[in-house]
Structure prediction request, 425 residues.
Amino acid sequence: MNRYRELSEIIEGEVYTDATMRHLYSTDASVYREMPGAVIFPRTVDDLGKIMQWAGKHNMPLIPRTAGTSLAGQVVGSGAVVDTGRYLREVLEINTEDRYVWVEPGVIRDDLNKRLSEYGLQFAPETSTSNRCMIAGMVGNNACGARSLIYGSTRDHLLEVKGFLSDGTPVHFKPLDGDELEEKLCLPGREGEVYRFIFQLLDNPETRKMLAENTPWPDINRRNTGYALDLLALAKPWEPTGEKLNLSQLIAGSEGTLMMISAIKLNLVPLPPPCKLLLCVHFRSLQEAFAGNLVILRYQVSSIELIDDTVLACTADHIGMKQNRFFLSGNPKAVLIIEIEGDSMEEVHKISRDITAALKQHGYGYHYPEVTGTGIGKVWELRKAGLGLLSNLKGAAKPVPVVEDAAVRPADLERYMHDIALMLE
Prediction:
């Protein structure tokens, strides 16, 4: 415990080693649990650098954490948890002309967008936990969300990131032109080592070929985790027409393993079009829904979400949810909720009619209700509530997490789910 006492004396924040606090931080939103050695609350950016230096001195593993909404145990471990979400919660700069914002790690996504809405702007990725998840966590797991079809993932909107390397070296990762990259490659210390390692790795044509041949399909835009070395290989100087080399791309999805983040620069986009409609297509089977999804993807929609009959059954006898089932007809095995946005209701209705006609032409679906106005919120509330009610299934059988979030090409989804079902028999 002396090492933790040493840390508490050099930072402005707090260090906790008591059993209560460690138990509170022994899990996240997943089923995983492991007792950390301590819980640290840095109060300033300077604290972050001192924590990294202290950890290096004592060979102490650190676990960066914000809201803890992760579903796969990403912020669970036996090291010291560093919660940057308690104090580092400031919006540092909003630039409406160039459409970017600088934030500290603990800024909550929805809180940020409430401020940005005054300027007609938003940070686009929207997770199901958007009212509590924090920006650094979204960077760590490269969060996507319901509208990834049009907005992509957090990595697509991450411009720059500041923070500290493992020895406490302060860094600022941003797009670099040729001269700037040369300067970085000549730096002494850990930052120079990082750039030299990346450059030597990717400067090998065989490495770039291996990355191109062994990374996920390029049309899977919901690739959340992992080191995006394949994307760096598409940057200059290796691709003359590529973007400038930006190690921020590597930080997105790295789950806090490469640096301690202190500030994040995000790209902003205009708020969604004013008119919206949900087309709620009912299907006779999951397989039919998967096939119908491929038809729907030909059209410009902002979101497609599935509700299966198990989730629907959980809401059937729930008093609070009955009013939200107004759009259902019969007993569908699956419902695809298709969100369509546009500048006028005429535009969104036309897209909805076109999708419905195409589905009917293929024989997919049996009921195609359109939902507008206040009904939209009720539909989304039903979906979110249904997922939460799965634990209340009648009988001895209860859901158990087996497969974490997976990204599958839509064309492969039916076969993927078929194989999963065989494994669970």
